[in-house]
Design goal:
With 159 residues, the protein is of the alpha+beta class. It has three helices and seven strands, in the order βαββββββαα. α1 packs across α3.
Length: 159
């Protein structure tokens, strides 16, 4: 019998919040990716690589920083349901970053998830071991960072 459980570093990460604002207001801010670095502890910059705004197939260059280490990622928008879901794949790591919003009574539920559908890429594992103290430890930091990101998004929307 094989163990089908993901490795600890490949577990799905999740952070949620409820924002006291209508979904359209949350969506407008959430999909302004130029603002994402002000919420995320690790993301320094997110730059579109193609014209046309947020759309399936749009590519972004992400500049990330952890302590003294800075590295780029390239992400591609894989799913877009305006007003509800936006997700992008970071192919260098194997991760998918998903933002989901839905109306609630008096606000908007926001869920930020990071599954790793096919497992972490070999390059990601090597990079994490060499520069980030290991994939599992970095995974824990990412999940804490996601909680910070949704809290900062909430603060930005609620003003």
């Amino acid at each position: 019998m094989t163990n089908s459980l993901p490795k600890p570093a490949e577990r799905e990460l999740i952070a949620t919040t409820t924002i006291a604002a209508p979904p359209a207001e949350v969506w407008a801010l959430l999909t302004d990716f130029s603002r994402m670095p002000s919420w995320s502890p690790e993301l320094v910059r997110m730059v579109p690589l193609l014209r046309g705004g947020v759309r399936v197939g749009q590519q972004y260059l992400g500049i990330n920083k952890r302590k003294a280490m800075i590295w780029p990622t390239r992400s591609v928008v894989a799913e877009l349901e305006p007003g509800r879901v936006v997700a992008w794949d970071t192919r260098s790591s194997g991760a998918r970053w998903i933002w989901e919003i839905e109306p609630t009574e008096g606000g908007t539920a926001v869920t930020h998830r990071r599954p790793v559908p096919s497992g972490l890429s070999p390059m990601s594992g090597v990079f994490a071991r060499a520069f980030l103290g290991g994939a599992e430890g970095h995974c824990d930091e990412l999940e804490a960072g996601m909680a910070t990101t949704v809290a900062r998004l909430k603060a930005a929307v609620e003003g």
